[in-house]
Design brief:
5 domains; 16 helices; TIM Barrel; alpha/beta; eight-stranded parallel beta barrel; seven-stranded antiparallel sheet; Thrombin, subunit H; about 650 residues
Length: about 650
């Protein structure tokens, strides 16, 4: 949890090696999955790996957050609690949780953060979680600046900070409010195993069964990019800025972390009242560019209000950037011309184009030949006959540059902590004092008889160079002072040993000064939950969670959808995204349009993908959409034994007094 004046750049890590590079490229904190119970089922890590990552991060006062953010069955509570203790002993700084049942357990004294899966949309929910003992809360991605500021106004910044997603893939649902995957496949998004039905193409039918859209990915969002909104988000109260991507590769994490590190450093240089949440300054051997990584094009989503163009409706794939157009298509190659004479293609580059049906077609370059003047000949990996509609005039995009990939495969960043060094005389020799920019100090001494240098003119310069040669450490010299009353000849070997001893002692001093984040105490008596009744969308999947909500005044507590007690048609997804609005069929859009006003109504629409059918219903007052359906019989049958073994019967109606 950053202090109220600190800004925290929070990066994802699929594994410890990626997490280490996130730190090296400027992350103030890294979130990573443990061995289990994380909302990315195939992105788990051994406790030993988390310990290795934490050890590296803490050198820079960066923090490690471990995701324990699935909903849990009763039989999983004890293993989850043990896992919490294991990662605590490994040096983790916080747990990111969704299941409130964990708050009923004997957890270690580790800081707790509320996952985006807890669906924090209102000031009341945010204040409740703060009062329940959560120190950092991840707000719903759908909130605008005014709504974020309203949350800020009810929180105590000394007790709870606001975290917000600023980059990466967007889940179309309010996080934690989607059960389509479980209803259709038995794979629960709330348990880390989403099948991503939102990325499928659908036929969109109106209430009369007429086609509104054909094979459109109407639930697929563009990718989040808040690069232009960082200052307004800071002013609205956000203090932890989160990059999505625990499934992403090391190149993505390096590039996107470096991109935002540069933006935040620029802000921090302009606003001295703010500070970074960790130590050190980064330099990069490349120019960060978010366009170089997989993306579905970018949107800032709802931060500045509802926008017209937030969907990646044509394809959930990465279209890349246009680089030129086809000038000739032959039997085994095609030629293209670029407007950019500096464009460089490489063997293995990922190229693509849109065919006549607006499908994105890949045309990976097996071999390329420069023709001069911005022209290139491309021999694709696949036969030309398979590249339908590739003809003269076709615009070619590049979604993978091998030059870029190779750049990020090498060492690409250097993170250093500034240090002042002062050499002074003692009764028996010399003392080197090292003080870092965080105020940590260390000493090293050498017994040495004073003798005058032969080359007085260059002696001090060479001595400063020897003492300040910190290349293989995490430090960089801010200043090297020779506080000596008379000229000293110091052998190079002595100077190097003084430097090594002082820097080793400084690292030890930093490690000794490192402190765990404090665990927040819940208020007493327990704060009442904002509502006295829940629905299955509260994701209560164990009796400890049920007891938590009962203790906070809730009287109606149904079991989570995964308990298979909602057998009829229900909302399988709640989302701020509106298909009617995106297709220009919103009644609010029609207001004032002559001849249209009153004729466009928020009637339900139907989504069809093969045998799958979903109904879209529109709640216009809060401007939300519900995707309605029911659980498949096959999912019920497959889960019958598990449901019997872990049967949940909570309050589905208010108990009789």
């Amino acid at each position: 949890m950053p202090l109220p004046h600190q800004l925290e750049l929070l990066s994802p890590a699929r594994d410890a090696d990626i997490g280490i590079e996130a730190v090296n490229h400027g992350a103030d904190a890294v979130y990573i999955g443990g061995p289990g119970f994380g909302a990315r089922a195939s992105a788990g890590n051994a406790v030993a790996s988390i310990e290795r990552l934490a050890r590296h991060a803490h050198r820079f006062d960066a923090r490690i957050f471990v995701t324990l953010n699935t909903i849990l069955r009763d039989d999983e509570l004890e293993p989850a609690c043990q896992l919490a203790w294991d990662v605590y002993h490994a040096g983790a700084d916080a747990l990111i949780i969704q299941d409130m049942g964990l708050l009923q357990l004997d957890l270690p004294p580790i800081q707790l953060h509320a996952s985006t899966q807890t669906d924090i949309r209102t000031p009341e929910k945010a204040r409740f979680l703060q009062d329940a003992g959560l120190s950092q809360i991840v707000l719903a991605r759908e909130l605008d600046l005014g709504q974020i500021a309203a949350v800020r106004d009810v929180l105590d910044p000394a007790r709870c900070s606001i975290e917000f997603f600023i980059h990466g893939a967007l889940c179309v649902a309010y996080s934690g409010q989607c059960t389509i995957s479980h209803a259709h496949t038995g794979r629960s998004a709330n348990r880390g195993d989403c099948s991503q039905a939102c990325r499928l193409p659908y036929q969109v039918l109106d209430a009369q069964g007429r086609f509104v859209a054909h094979d459109a990915h109407v639930l697929s969002m563009k990718d989040n990019n808040q690069s232009l909104n960082l200052r307004p988000l800071i002013d609205a109260g956000v203090r932890s800025f989160k990059i999505e991507g625990r499934y992403k590769d090391i190149g993505y994490v390096k590039n996107i972390t470096a991109h935002y590190r540069r933006l935040f450093d620029e802000i921090l240089d302009q606003r001295p009242e703010l500070a970074p949440a960790s130590s050190g300054r980064c330099s990069f051997s490349f120019t960060p560019d978010p366009q170089q990584n997989f993306n579905r094009e970018f949107t800032d989503y709802f931060v500045n209000g509802r926008q017209d163009d937030i969907g990646a409706f044509d394809t959930p794939k990465n279209p890349g950037q246009p680089i030129g157009f086809v000038t000739r298509a032959a039997t085994d190659h095609f030629e293209l011309m670029s407007d950019d004479a500096a464009l460089h293609l490489s063997n293995g580059d990922g190229l693509c184009y849109w065919d006549a049906q607006k499908a994105l077609i890949g045309a990976q370059a097996n071999r390329v030949e420069p023709l001069g003047g911005g022209a290139w000949r491309v021999f694709p990996k696949d036969p030309m006959a398979q590249l339908r509609d590739l003809r003269k005039g076709t615009v070619i995009h590049r979604n993978r540059s091998m030059d870029w990939v190779r750049t990020l495969e090498k060492k690409s960043a250097d993170r250093r902590i500034g240090v002042w060094m002062k050499l002074s005389e003692t009764s028996g020799g010399l003392r080197l004092t090292a003080t870092d920019e965080d105020g940590n100090m260390a000493l090293a001494q050498a017994q040495l008889a004073q003798s005058a240098p032969k080359d007085i003119a260059n002696n001090d310069l060479k001595l400063r160079e020897s003492l300040g040669a910190l290349g293989e450490t995490i430090f960089t010299p801010i200043d090297v002072t020779l506080d000596l009353p008379r000229p000293w000849f110091v052998p190079v070997s002595v100077a190097k040993q003084l430097r090594r001893d002082a820097i080793a002692a400084l690292e030890a001093a930093r490690a000794a000064a490192w402190q765990r984040l404090p665990r927040a105490a819940p208020v007493e008596p327990p704060a009442p939950y904002p509502d006295d009744a829940l629905t299955y969308l509260a994701n209560v999947f164990n009796h400890a969670a049920r007891d938590f909500y009962a203790r906070h005044g809730v009287t109606v507590i149904p079991a989570a959808f995964e308990a298979h007690q909602e057998l009829g048609e229900v909302s399988l997804m709640v989302t701020k995204h509106c298909v009617r609005f995106s297709l220009s069929l919103c009644p609010k859009q029609a207001k004032g349009v002559i001849g249209v006003k009153g004729t466009v109504k928020a009637e339900p629409l139907q989504l069809v993908n093969g045998k799958e059918k979903l109904t879209l219903r529109f709640d216009c007052k809060p401007c939300e959409m519900h995707v309605v359906g029911k659980i498949k019989p096959g999912v019920l049958q497959a889960g019958a034994r598990e449901a019997a073994e872990h049967a949940l019967r909570f309050y589905r109606a208010q108990p009789v007094a």
